[in-house]
Amino acid sequence: MTDSYGVPTLDLSQWGSESQSSFIQALMKGLETFGFVVIKNHGIQPSLLDKAYQQSKALFELDETEKLQYSIESSQRGYTAFGREHAKDNPIGDLKEYWHIGPELSEDSPYLNEYPKNFWPTSLPSFQPALSSLYAELDRVSQILLAAIGKGLNVEDGFFKQLTHDGNTVMRLIHYPPVENGAPTGAMRAAPHADINLITLLIGASSEGLELLDKNGEWLPINNAPDEIVVDTGDMMARLTNEQLPSTVHRVVNPKDLSQARYSMPFFVHPHNSASLVSLPQCLKGEPPKHEPITAGDFLHQRLRENGFLKESEDN
Ligand SMILES: O=C(O)CCC(=O)C(=O)O
Ligand SMILES: [Fe+2]
Questions:
Q1: Domain annotation covers residue 127
Q2: Could you tell me which residue ranges the Fe2OG dioxygenase domain spans (predicted)?
């Protein structure tokens, strides 16, 4: 089944059923063609999603001074203030504030002291349980999607599970406030960019605005039901697959009614930092690799510097 723009809508309940191979085929085709698919029947409870969005709204309603207590310059956890991040090669800051939640690692993880620790806002006691539950559910769905991609690429079973074990996966709660008259000319909710990571899951964005740049250079709005998950491929997957699954540039445009806020929650699935992003032999098909080998951690830091998030000397 496809929506009117051709981005396919796939039924996750086909995974593990007799239609599994047609699910895998449609997933690969959608990602190869658009870099985007929409997923329904993923099993995430609407009540869990509602609670997570309620907590996200409550978080952004806190006083700026309180939010800034959870902001460490250049850290990939906690709060990032409005206008701080900009897309690669674009000097104008995006019209958004956001909060990052990473994995809660086990005590024996080699990354325990490498990845920054999560912050949990003390004045919102329901925030951690709601967001941790949604993080676990999105992680579950992402593992199914990666297993399906693994089968589609013909890599050994468990390849992506191992690659993302102790992964630096980040859930980003975003608040795009009403657009003020004083916003810099050309500033956008999210300027055109490709995601850094393997795949991104977007669930329940509160209003439209997300658009992808198709292969003809046209912007296509993504129209999905609020309970469906939009999935896109990031640059790390493009590197691993030697561009068989390319990343796709996308953006979030400003609304016609500038007084309308928007909330979203991209879930950026990352490998562990020491994972190699060298092209998989299954994807070379006689072609030379299109990218230099690099680890996931080094690639992430390179991209964070380009997004104005890390200064040259910083490394976290
Ligand atoms: O808010 C959205 O719907 C998408 C945001 C996005 O593309 C990003 O943060 O990378
Ligand atoms: Fe994105």
A1: yes
A2: 167-271
Q: Specify the number of domains making up the chain.
A: 1
Pocket test for ligand 1, best of 80, 264, 269 (most atoms within 8 A of CB): 264
The residue range of the domain holding 108 is 2-310
Name the stretches of the chain with pLDDT < 50. 1-4, 313-316
Q: Is 212 in the pocket of ligand 1 (CB under 6 A)?
A: no
Q: How far is CA 116 from the centre of its chain?
A: 18
Q: Are 160 and 145 in contact (CB under 8 A)?
A: no
The pLDDT value given to residue 2:
47
pLDDT digits (tens, 9 = 90+) for 94-115: 899 999 999 999 999 999 999 9
Q: Are 301 and 169 in contact (CB under 8 A)?
A: no
Q: Encoding tokens for residue 294? A: 């690099």
**CATH number reported for the structural domain that contains residue 196 in this entry:** 2.60.120.330
| CA atoms within a 13 Å half-sphere pointing along the CA-CB vector of 124 | 23
Task: Give this complex's ipTM.
Answer: 0.99
The finding on whether 52 has its CB within 6 A of some atom of ligand 1 is no
| Residue 315 forms part of a structural domain | no
> Which residue lies with its CA nearest to atom 1 of ligand 1?
264
What one-letter code names the amino acid at 188?
M
Q: What is the pTM of this model?
A: 0.95
pLDDT tens string 198-250: 999 999 988 889 999 999 999 999 989 989 999 999 999 999 999 999 999 99
32 in any annotated domain: yes
